[in-house]
Amino acid sequence: MKRKKKKIVIFLSLVATVVLAVGGYLLIHSRYNGIYTADGYGLCLVAKNGSVKVFEITDDYYSAEPGLDGFLLIDTLWSGLGKMKLVQTDEGLQMIDVGAQVTYHLRRNESSFFEDRIEVKEGMPVEAFAMFYQIYDENYAFESLYGADISAKYEELRNQVTGDTTDAELFEKMKELVSDLRDGHVGLEWNDQFFCAADCEPEWIVDDEQLSLLSEVIINRYARDYKKFDDCMIRYGMLSDNAGLIIIHAMGTESLNKTKSTKKAMDQIITEFNAKGVKSVAIELRFNGGGLDEASLLLAGYFTDTSYPAYRKQAYYKGEYSSMQEMCVEPSNIRFDGDVYILTSGYTISAAETFLLSMLANPNERVTVVGERTAGFFSDAFDRSMPGDFYYSISNERYWSANGDAVEGLGIEPDIRVATSVEAAREGFDPVLDAVLRLIEEGE
Known about the structure:
Elements: H1 2-29, E1 34-38, E2 43-48, E3 51-57, E4 61-64, E5 70-73, E6 76-79, E7 82-88, E8 92-97, E9 102-109, E10 118-119, H2 125-139, H3 150-157, H4 167-177, E11 187-190, E12 193-195, H5 203-206, H6 208-222, E13 224-228, E14 234-238, E15 243-248, H7 260-276, E16 280-284, H8 293-300, E17 308-317, E18 320-321, E19 325-329, E20 339-344, H9 351-360, E21 367-371, E22 381-386, E23 390-395, E24 397-401, E25 416-417, H10 422-426, H11 431-443
Parallel strand pairs: 4-10, 15-16, 16-20, 20-21, 21-25
Antiparallel strand pairs: 1-2, 1-9, 2-3, 3-4, 3-5, 5-6, 6-7, 7-8, 8-9, 11-12, 11-23, 13-14, 14-15, 17-18, 17-19, 17-24, 22-23
């Protein structure tokens, strides 16, 4: 009997511990309870006792974004948006992406917020098309840059979408609505079909045979001791006894820790280069379609011994821009202090371009760009979905160089222009890397 009572006491103690733990968790996180909206990003976060539901919103509509849902842990949000630090303010919340150095300002709303909006669900083509239009009308930053008139296009198309419109027909109307936006960050996807009005992919990127040929020439002719990592898109080797080569195919990884594998790889690479007495490094960005700004800033930190402003940006919302935010490069504990040559092409896009911006802002002025003008698509692209398996992206942020120049749609011109050539690759050489090697030899 005593043994049985002892087991009961232990069980009740465990139950009490769990209840207290759950109660403590709910109490700690209940202070964040509320409905919050992020102007310029088309998002609404509903926090309740540590759970966070995310919705896509416009003035008249909303729909669930379950892939972005998450939870709170003390003052940190873990969700499909990433890992964000939270700070309460009089207006609502600051949601801080520490790595990317971006602060999102969220307004607290009344509990009746959703009552004034229509929830868009699967099988509602009229409402889905209207919501898709409003997302772009309220948040898209570059309508005038591309000479587009989204409102006029919507008025032209809206009556062509009815309750009987199929998903395939709706996808075609969505494509028409954004067809004048020649922006590499404006993309639509449905049922394995993809649309982007921008012509930003060279033939040698989309043609597997040409891409393989270019890669083989770089690896087999130029990259000695070629190595790669399994957990990130970084490769490296030696161009000569005194020159290293770093090939970066994407910036960071889509995970909660966006730069962990990038840091691990770069620590290894720069440590090896320094041990070998490398004097110059070539960074290959011609095949880099972008990624995460957090990784771009981290990478730039391996080439400076001092903190410096890299670029600035601001978000668009209903005809106005938010306050400017400045991003800075912070020096890594492991650094390379030699000359840097960066190889670019028309497929150097987005976060690859912000990395280039960050490197060109380096006060040491040791960076030379060789290749072709970059794509000019700098803005963050926020990815969204709609019921019916529709996925799309939109650019809502205007970027400025450290010198105060607007860069969207312009790209970055190289110091030395040399085109990537498939014909040359067929003959076994790369004119861009050859140009870099000549510059390195001249510098020595």
